[in-house]
Every structure is written in structure tokens, then in C-alpha cells.
């Protein structure tokens, strides 16, 4: 095992100087820095990370709290956030809250116990007073509290793009499946804008809530059958990609033609929109830009920098729109 | 901030006794244990985790190294492993190696630097000599080295189930898309068994390798078109769910009927097999059992227990098999 003494010897400096270099403390000349780093590289010296953490009060760990990594929106954003954190020297602890509402609370406790340097929260827990927590937190597509910055796609624009597609397609009776209104999220904007625009165009717009934290595909298929049974004459469906895909599958199983009999429109722009046939027109979230912004804002909070705003809106656009005009 | 002194006072014991309780060191009577825990609960005492780690040499962190969390096989297994680790008091650091082959090496360095207690590796890196690492590692569906235990589904049985489905359906010319042979994985068993069984039944079986670590859906669609162009008279496709779904989509776009013109069979039993229409017959991996076994074996390694074997095979079965007989 290579020790700090070995590094000091190889670099021709004192142990104390190596220690100051590792902990970024006090003045060290560029020449000495280079010598120490060369010794570290040559000897493959691994500082004892736990001891270092105790001194620096940093763990280089970030918690990512999401409801379900199996949902293609969350798996896509998780991959991008992990990449962004890795590029900045941080590791990501993944917390999937779906099967335990207590997990989010446990993560906040970790933050308080100095086990992570910051948390990104994209989950749905609602029984926590986030304002009480004096630590670096960024909200991903969720409104947690007024003093926690939130990063989300431009969902108002998303609702507009979708509504225009249904209107252009000539739909008369459209259903919109929305997440539970129990939790306030920035994406509720898309539902508001969509409903308003459809009303103005004289299109019947049915709004139905999905159950809270419901991400099982088999449940979507059941919901799909209920909807197709309940609303004769329905000629349009708007929801997140997995829900729209489930309804499309059940409509096809009933011999309905898509988009001629019923127009399907997704949301999120996940790979699922490309995997089904016909591919779903959808509103694509720019996962890379969302992830980059989330991590940028979190780094500012960790470094104690002042944020210029509390809400970061990322532009979005439609995809697979060729199917729109009938 | 609640300190160890507050806990000691509330429990009516010495600071040293509380410290021994926290570090699970020396004898403490059940009554004293109960009193200390009650004081901890009542005061919401948070031990300084970093200081504790320094003493216990434990971080309660496990690294999960996978190529791509967006791939539905990996997102499903990631969700289950996180649940299993959480139930045992461990947090999971997620490492997505897709965009950087150096990441896996970095994770092994973390393990060596005592920053994680163990690693689960389901990734494809191949330039590492894993036997050199004297630390708790379990391989997920990958053969890393002879002295690292591996957990995988019964892929030989999987190949058999799939081959029988093509034979029963009456296929004559089938293509099997396999992962790059550059990396040895337990799932290569399914390809061996499948090819052998098809040959014995007199079915033409074309085998084509996919590029290494290729998980982009758009690339699958391109591959799909190349295959449909290259092999006239092809009447069967066998690959992982996302690849099969991509080929099914492009076949449908060409007006081919499924399964009448071309029989599609997936592998892994992800939600994608249910999302497309017609749903894909597939071989379903039991994600919960795989995750449980991976974590059980890792815990044994962490606790220094002897393993009874180095290979753990989990049973699998077919799903959506009604489409099989034509």
C-alpha cells in the first residue's frame, strides 16, 4: 500500500506539503504541485477517501431521487445526469422511491448526516417540508418549495404543440390522461394549455387522472381498455409515451386504424415513441440539456453561489410530426 | 445538533457505551441497548456517518456498473437491485459505462480506496484483469473471471424455449441477432442452444452480430432495414426485445403481416414486449429473483462467508406464447 510518506519522498517534499496539496489548503508553488502530482501518478497513490471526507466535509456523492428508473423518461434522464456528474468528479447514488415512500425522507437524512453533497429530487413525495432543509437541493420537473430551484422543460409550449397537432388532424373528441393532481408539477402546465387551446378550437376534451405513482405497464393496458370501452367516438389520445403506447396497442388489437380512426400523441420523446408502429408523434424533452442544467444549478448551490433565478425552463419540440396531417 | 453526549444523558449511560452500541463493539445488555435506541429515536440523533465509516471501514455503499440504464433490461434489473440493497441498509451508486470505457476502471479504484463496500458488475469492459482485485465483486450476467461469482438466468433453457417456438410456428429461414462475440457472457449459451436446435430441425439459421455496446434505438431501426433488405424470404427474427421490436416496426412499415409473414420473438421479457402490437412472444427474465440472488451473494462476499458455488442460474419461462402456433 502506497502511503503519503512514499509520495512525499518521491516528490522530495514534506508529508505536510503533500497533505496541503491533497486538501487544497495554503500556497504551494506550481513546480511543487507538478512534482507531487507526478509522484502520485507514478506510484498510483490512492488517498484514503474516507479520511479525506472527514477533513474536507465533502463526499463527492450526489443523491438522485426518482419514482421509477424503469419509466423511460426517468431512465433517459438518469443516464444523462450520471454522465454530467461523472464529468464533474461526482458519483451518483440512485434512489427509486416507487416501492417505499419513506425512501425520500431517508435521503434527506443522508444529506443532513453529510453523506452526500447534494440531492436532485424528481420524485413525488409530498409529506415533506423541503423549506426546512438547509442543504443543496435541485428539483427535477417537480415543484418542491419556493426556495428550491426547479429545472423543467417548457411544458406550456409542449401543451401547445400537442393541441395544434390534434386540431390540424381534425379531431373532435380527445382524451387527455394526466398524472394525479395530488402533486403539483411543472408539467401540469401542459395540461392547462392543452385543455384551453382545445376548448377554444371547439374540440371536446376529456381529462382523466391516472393513479398516483402508477408506472406498471400492465395497469396502463387495463386503463387503455377502460377508456376505449367508455368513450365511443373517441378520435384522439394525449398522454405520456408509455400510456399512449398502451392505448395504441389496445386500439390496434380492436382493429382500429391509426391515425385514421384514432389519433395518438405521446409526450417525453422516449425511445418507446420510435419502438411502436405507427411511431408516436410526441413532444421530445431534451434530456441532455435538462441534465446539464440540473447539475449546473446544483454545483452553484454546493459552491454557495447565488442563483440568478429559481426556475429554469428548457425549450422543447415535436417529433414524428409527419403523421399529424391526415 | 444532537450529539452523542445528549444520547448518553437521555439513556442514562456513558458516552463510551453509546459509542460501543453504535459501532457494535463489546457486550451491552438488551436493556441498555433498548434504552440507547429509544434515546436515539426520541432525539432524532444522526451519527456522523463519515466519522463512523473511518472507524468501521464500512460505507454501506455498493457500486452497480452497467452499460446503459436506458436499455429496458438494465433499467428493470437496476430498479430491483436498488430495492434489494435498500432493504439491507445499503445505498447504490449507479455507474453507466456506455459513454466512457474508463468508468469501470474508476469504480474498481473506488473499491480499492474503500469508498464502496462492494461492486456488482453487469458491464462489458474487457481490458481489466478482475482476478487481481481482492474485494467483494459479483458479476451480473457476465463472465469476468473464474474467481468472481456470476448470477444469470438459465439462458440455455431460454434458447430452447425460443427455438421450439420457431419450429412450432413452422419457420424455414430465421435470423438471430447476437451481441458482439468480443465479450463472453452467460447469454451466449442461448445462442449456442438456439442455433444447434434450429439446425437439428432443418431450419436455416442466420447469425448476425450486433456492434459492441450498441444500445441506440435509431441504430436498431437502421439494422432492421438492412436485415429486411438483405434476406428475402426471411420468416423469423430472434433477438433481445428492443432489437426485435425495431425489426417488427420496420416490417410492419413495409406492410408485412406479423406473425403470418414473419415471426418475431424477443428476449428478456421487458415492458417493451407488451408495448408493441402485436405483443412480442419473449423469454422473461425473473428480475426480482436475479436481483435478490446477486445481492445475497454479494452480502456473503462482504461478510467473508464461503460461497457454495461460483455460478447461480435462475429459471426462466416464455411469455406471450399464444402467438406461437400459426
How much helix, percentage-wise, in residues of chain A?
Answer: 40-55%
Which of globular, elongated, flat, extended, rod-shaped describes the shape of chain A? elongated
Average residue pLDDT of chain A: 89
Cα separation of the termini of chain A = 70 Å
The class by helix and strand makeup of chain A works out as alpha/beta
Strand content of chain A: 15-25%
Largest interface: A-B, 56 and 56 residues
Rg estimate of chain A, integer Å: 25 Å
Quaternary structure annotation: homodimer
Biggest sheet of chain A: strands, sense, closure?
6 strands, parallel
The spatial strand order of the largest sheet of chain A comes to: 2-1-3-4-5-11
Count every beta strand of chain A, where a strand is a DSSP E run of 2 or more residues. Answer: 12
Q: Would you identify the regions of chain A where 5 or more consecutive residues have pLDDT less than 50?
A: none
Give the SSE order of chain A as H and E letters: HHHHEHEHEEEHEHEHEHEHEHEE
Number of helices of chain A: 12
Amino acid at each position: 500500500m502506497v502511503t503519503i510518506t512514499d509520495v512525499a519522498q518521491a516528490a522530495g517534499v514534506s508529508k505536510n506539503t503533500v497533505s496541503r496539496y491533497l486538501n487544497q489548503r495554503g500556497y504551494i508553488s506550481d513546480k511543487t504541485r507538478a512534482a507531487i502530482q507526478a509522484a502520485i501518478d507514478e506510484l498510483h497513490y490512492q488517498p484514503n477517501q474516507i479520511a479525506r471526507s472527514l477533513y474536507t466535509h465533502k463526499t463527492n456523492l450526489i443523491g438522485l431521487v426518482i419514482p421509477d428508473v424503469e419509466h423511460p423518461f426517468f431512465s433517459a434522464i438518469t443516464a444523462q445526469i450520471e454522465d454530467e456528474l461523472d464529468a464533474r468528479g461526482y458519483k451518483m447514488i440512485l434512489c427509486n422511491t416507487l416501492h417505499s415512500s419513506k425512501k425520500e425522507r431517508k435521503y434527506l437524512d443522508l444529506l443532513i448526516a453529510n453523506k452526500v453533497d447534494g440531492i436532485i429530487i424528481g420524485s413525488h413525495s409530498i409529506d415533506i417540508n423541503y423549506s426546512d432543509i438547509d442543504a443543496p437541493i435541485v428539483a427535477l420537473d417537480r415543484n418542491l418549495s419556493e426556495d428550491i430551484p426547479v429545472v423543467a422543460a417548457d411544458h406550456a409550449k409542449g401543451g401547445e404543440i400537442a393541441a395544434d397537432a390534434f386540431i390540424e388532424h381534425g379531431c373532435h373528441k380527445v382524451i387527455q390522461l394526466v398524472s394525479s393532481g395530488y402533486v403539483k408539477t411543472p408539467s401540469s402546465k401542459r395540461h392547462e394549455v392543452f385543455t384551453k387551446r382545445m376548448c377554444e378550437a371547439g374540440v371536446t376534451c376529456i381529462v382523466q387522472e391516472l393513479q398516483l405513482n402508477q408506472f406498471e405497464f400492465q395497469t396502463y393496458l387495463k386503463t387503455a381498455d377502460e377508456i376505449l370501452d367508455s368513450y365511443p367516438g373517441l378520435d384522439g389520445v394525449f398522454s405520456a409515451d408509455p400510456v399512449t403506447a398502451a392505448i395504441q396497442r389496445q386500439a390496434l388489437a380492436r382493429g382500429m386504424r391509426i391515425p385514421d380512426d384514432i389519433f395518438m400523441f405521446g409526450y417525453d420523446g422516449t425511445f418507446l415513441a420510435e419502438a411502436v408502429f405507427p411511431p408516436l408523434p410526441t413532444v421530445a424533452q431534451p434530456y441532455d440539456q435538462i441534465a446539464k442544467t440540473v447539475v449546473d444549478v446544483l454545483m452553484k448551490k454546493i459552491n454557495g453561489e447565488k442563483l440568478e433565478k429559481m426556475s429554469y425552463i428548457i425549450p422543447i419540440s415535436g417529433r414524428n410530426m409527419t403523421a399529424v396531417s391526415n
